[in-house]
Design brief:
193 residues; alpha/beta; 5-stranded mixed beta sheet; two-stranded parallel ribbon; 9 strands; 24% strand; globular
């Protein structure tokens, strides 16, 4: 947790958010959700450091149950959260929630595990299309690029070309993954009108 709380902000996300802010008429009020109280406290502490505490409301809530009205968000950020879904059903419920709270035309920033983290010959958990336990010992989602696109299209999000689709920590061709750091997708999507 300390590494996440002290690490610098994601520069690609900040650039995307700045562009999205220009689309919002009244500026932003931010709702941050997590199931970890220490992560929520770290977020609050960071906003106090930057005198932004009056704009952040944190809520202890699961990814598949966002405490917000339908179509109320201009931007949804799923940064390192959807990969923690323990089943495809939970993952899809989280996407359904993102679509429910997103206004038409809202941006979506995604930072989640890639299937390329694990060797191709490793099968997913029985009955699951993209859930694996080999990385951490716990069920986690590792989607292919095509699966991620299809799952987001299902709930009305399409890729936003303003943020190039990127895979971090991808091993060079012909080399083996160390298995220590996950391969991570970073991309932006947009909710249809």
């Amino acid at each position: 947790m300390a590494g996440f709380a002290q690490s610098p902000a994601n520069a690609v996300l900040l650039t995307f958010a700045e562009k999205e802010l220009k689309r919002s008429r009244n500026g932003w009020k931010v709702v941050g959700t997590d199931l970890s109280r220490p992560m929520l406290c770290a977020a609050v502490n960071r906003t106090h450091e930057h005198q932004l505490h009056d704009r952040l409301h944190v809520v202890l809530a699961p990814m598949e149950s966002i405490p917000a009205r339908d179509h109320s968000f201009d931007l949804v950020i799923a940064h390192g959260i959807w990969n923690l879904a323990r089943s495809a059903a939970q993952f899809r419920q989280a996407l359904d929630e993102a679509a429910r709270v997103a206004k038409p035309g809202a941006g979506l920033f995604v930072f989640t595990f890639s299937r390329n983290t694990l060797p191709a010959q490793i099968p997913p958990v029985a009955g699951e299309p993209f859930v694996f336990t080999q990385f951490s010992g716990q069920p986690q989602c590792f989607l292919t690029e095509a699966q991620l696109d299809a799952e987001l299209r299902r709930v009305g999000f399409v890729r936003d070309p303003s943020v190039p689709f990127h895979e971090y920590n991808l091993p060079k061709p012909g080399t083996l993954s160390t298995g220590k750091a996950p391969v991570i997708y970073e991309a932006a999507f947009r909710r249809g009108d």
